[in-house]
Write a structure and sequence with these properties.
five-stranded mixed β-sheet, 6 helices, 2 domains, alpha+beta, Fumarylacetoacetate hydrolase, domain 2, 283 residues
């Protein structure tokens, strides 16, 4: 099942997506669950979503304006230095623990919406990533039980303003320019992904492949990340974990390859979807 948040005719809603339609379950359940995070926070929310799906009006996919699947997450946690080839290209040592930073909710847009290159920098980089969405919260989750807490998977572009990222040892400034990253188009529930480690992540810039890696190249696997993060922070439904980017980012190319206005950047994982965004200049 593909679950998404979207705008149709000026109304923010959510539902289930197939090849041609986004089924507007939010039109039926919106009074009870105003957004997808609220629905996921209820023990019966997903069951209600599925039960009412046959009664939901279909919105043609081309008529939907996509939002990040969880527009208002409690947390977006991102993992740096988590693919072997990316660690190698940075010249850094292999980390002993996950390198974590946060992104604010307004730092990402949905599929098809413009990424904004800030006026403060020309060093605007792409980072295609696999994202995990938490369906069941908890603390001190063991790696053995971690996947029980996963709702599903999505795609993420951790758009990075590299010079601002390097102002200090903390990445926060370079990772949180408004609308600099993207998330979506939807969440594919984990029952449709038998083994996420068998998938490949591909990023393209203007149709040219710039990143291509198997998910199995992750240094810290999904279960390990959930176990580590839940030790210090309570995970709640709708939380997002972006698992890191493979090698091939623009910053470590010669010369560097930066995104600019007019560029089209795409992140794709077969079986999950295609996240596509055009770059514009900050107004």
């Amino acid at each position: 099942m593909k679950i998404a948040s979207f705008i149709h005719e000026g109304r923010t809603t959510y539902g289930v997506v197939d090849l041609n339609y986004a089924y507007d379950v939010g039109r039926i359940l919106g009074r009870k669950y105003p957004d997808l995070k609220a629905l996921l926070s209820s023990e019966t929310g997903l069951a209600e979503l599925q039960e009412l799906l046959p009664d939901a009006p279909g919105v043609p996919v081309r008529a939907a304006q996509w939002l990040p699947p969880i527009p208002n997450p409690d947390k977006v946690l991102c993992v740096g230095l988590n693919y072997a080839k990316h660690i190698e290209e940075t010249g850094r040592e292999v980390p002993k623990y996950p390198t974590l930073f946060t992104r604010f909710a307004n730092a990402q847009v949905g599929h098809g919406e413009p990424l904004v290159k800030p006026t403060a920098s020309d060093a605007f980089d792409f980072e295609g990533e696999l994202a995990i969405v938490i369906g069941k919260g908890g603390r001190h989750i063991s790696a053995a039980n971690a996947l029980d807490h996963v709702l599903g998977y999505s795609l993420f572009n951790d758009g990075s303003i590299r010079d601002w990222q390097r102002h200090t040892l903390q990445f926060t400034a370079g990772k949180n320019f408004v609308a600099s990253g993207s998330f979506g188009p939807w969440i594919v529930t984990k029952d449709e992904v038998p083994d996420v480690n068998q998938l490949r992540l591909i990023t393209r810039l203007n149709g040219v492949e710039v990143q291509n890696s198997g998910i199995d190249d992750l240094l810290f696997k999904i279960a390990d990340l959930i176990a580590y993060i839940s030790t210090f922070s309570e995970l709640v439904p709708g939380d997002v974990i972006a698992t890191g980017t493979p090698g091939g980012v623009g910053a470590f190319r010669e010369p560097p390859l930066w995104m600019k206005a007019g560029d089209l950047v795409e992140v794709e994982v077969e079986g999950i979807g295609l996240l596509s965004n055009r770059v514009i200049e900050e107004a």
